[in-house]
Amino acid sequence: MEHFASILKTMGHTGRLRILALLERGELTVTELVQILNLSQPRVTQYINSLESVGIIERLREGSWVFSRLKRGNSDGARLVDVILKNIPRHDDVFKSDLIELQKVRDARSKVAEEFFAKVALDDKQLGNEYLPQRDIEIALLERIAEQSFEFMIDMGTGTGRMLELFASQIQHGAGIDLSPEMLKVARHKLAGDEFAHISVQQGKLQSTPFKDGTADLITLHQVLHFLDDPSEAIAEAARVMRHKATLLIIDFEAHSVESFRDEYAHRRLGFSDAEIIEWSESVGLKIQNTQRVINTNNPAVVIWEAQKLS
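^ thats the sequence. predicted structure below, dont judge the formating
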């Protein structure tokens, strides 16, 4: 009861409520909140500290940047915040003004992301994407989990956030992990719409994600393993955060001999055999349930391995 009272007292302030309404639509830095709210940085920081102290928002450090975001999940506090935010009058002038300023911030983010995207992320020659039958891969993935819904998805090595975007309508909450700040900017740009407010991305290592044991029921490793020194570590980490009967989708190249991938695209591994993926999966309590090859006119083929946690 006291915790509920503390949350309600903290939310019972226009400035703090405005911040929560903005964070409902995605994570923001203090600088961005200052710009949107037209308040001083010390005041915004004070409001954020108050909201964090009652456990309804959290802060995420990413290099020199710190993002604030709503605490998602099934806690009593999260549910209380959700009910209150859903009942904010959408016709309120302050609320509408904040949304206009939020869009300006999103537009500025988009400009930065698009500049990077133009230089690198859309450069198929740099990324090796001319070898990926991406449309066929995505169709196969959607067919693989058609009509299923998931509470929490983790996309390990999220890159541009495409997997989170693809499955957004089938998940309650989603998180993407990537080591590259530049790619995370692109992901935030792609996932900036209100339809992606339940999704966040953050910087982190695949081998040691910040999630607790047994929290996710869907994990994706899309074109990630071939960059790693020890791919088995990523599969082991996926197994750690998977719930019982959770699904892991591994999408990567079939074992091949195109040596140029090492020099041109920094691939450490030239694809994988079924035997390797099966061995690494079974060693951490996962069982490969299905294997599907997606053939393209450009070799090598791409394989989708579907694993389930049985213990």
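The radius of gyration is 21 Å.
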